[in-house]
């Protein structure tokens, strides 16, 4: 066996290790090492074997690109103070990175006392969740409920898609996250894996509101 043959054997051993590991990041690193180990073998032949060299470089480039993406995705997620409050209030069933993507689909708002977020007789165009400040629910001027921070404002009404039978206003200065319905639908449609989790959050919120009304 020629000394160069050891490069081929070592490269295939690296491939065996790559196919044995469970972590996709390590699999790609071993695949890169296997491809690069083969290149000297192809270069040092009597006639340089350019086709396998070029393909080894192509596979190496693809794997290095995917490795860079994996490292970016695995960076620690740092939430702002407002994002952390919202996450703790009702989104802990989501991974922090998933929650950050959801928050980027909305926008942060500050409300003064008395500011209206849902108008009686008009369709609901957005969903809101406050991290500070209660929201009062009125029907024909009569107070019927109070929504506390962490509860979704407008979820049942948005699902019905009918003119709202109630008005919702903040009873005090508030800080809240607002999602327009079109942007929220676009976000969910692009991430079907999150649809079930978010639907569960909405159902839990509706159940809590119903329990509050009945108690």
What's the β-strand tally?
8
The major pleated sheet works out as: 4 strands, antiparallel
According to CATH, the homologous superfamily of the largest domain is Jelly Rolls
Q: Categorize the overall geometry.
A: rod-shaped
Q: What oligomeric state is this?
A: single chain
What's the overall average pLDDT, rounded?
88
Please report the first level of CATH classification, the CATH class of the largest domain. Mainly Beta
Strand order of the largest sheet: 1-8-3-6
Beta-strand content estimate: 15-25%
The helix content, as a percent range, equals: 40-55%
Q: Order of SSEs, N→C?
A: HHHHHEEEEEEHEEHH
Radius of gyration: 27 Å
**Helix tally?**
8
Q: Any overview of this molecule?
A:
With 215 residues, this protein is of the alpha+beta class. It has eight helices and eight strands; from the N terminus they run αααααββββββαββαα. The strands form two sheets. It has a four-stranded antiparallel beta sheet with strand order 1-8-3-6. Strands 2-7-4-5 form a four-stranded antiparallel beta sheet. The radius of gyration is 27 Å and the shape is rod-shaped.
What layout of secondary structure does this protein have?
Blueprint: H1 5-20, H2 24-43, H3 50-73, H4 81-90, H5 96-104, E1 107-111, E2 116-118, E3 126-132, E4 135-139, E5 142-147, E6 152-153, H6 155-160, E7 167-170, E8 174-180, H7 181-189, H8 192-214
Antiparallel strand pairs: 1-8, 2-7, 3-6, 3-8, 4-5, 4-7
Helix pairs in contact: 1-2, 2-3
């Amino acid at each position: 066996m020629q000394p160069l043959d050891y490069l081929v054997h070592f490269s295939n051993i690296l491939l065996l290790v790559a196919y044995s590991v469970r972590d996709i990041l390590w699999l790609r690193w071993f695949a890169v090492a296997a491809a690069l180990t083969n290149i000297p073998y192809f270069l040092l032949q009597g006639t340089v074997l350019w086709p396998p060299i070029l393909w080894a470089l192509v596979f190496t480039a693809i794997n290095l690109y995917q490795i860079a993406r994996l490292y970016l995705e695995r960076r620690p997620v740092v939430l702002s103070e407002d994002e952390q409050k919202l996450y703790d209030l009702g989104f802990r069933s989501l991974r922090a990175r998933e929650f950050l993507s959801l928050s980027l689909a909305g926008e942060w708002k500050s409300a003064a006392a008395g500011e209206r977020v849902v108008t009686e007789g008009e369709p609901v165009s957005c969903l809101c969740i406050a991290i500070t400040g209660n929201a009062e629910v009125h029907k024909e001027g009569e107070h019927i409920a109070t929504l506390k921070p962490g509860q979704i404002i407008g979820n049942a009404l948005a699902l019905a898609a009918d003119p709202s039978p109630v008005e919702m206003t903040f009873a005090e200065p508030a800080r809240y996250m607002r999602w327009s319905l079109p942007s929220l639908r676009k976000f969910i449609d692009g991430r079907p894996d999150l649809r079930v989790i978010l639907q569960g959050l909405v159902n839990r919120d509706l159940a809590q509101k119903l329990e509050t009304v009945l108690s």
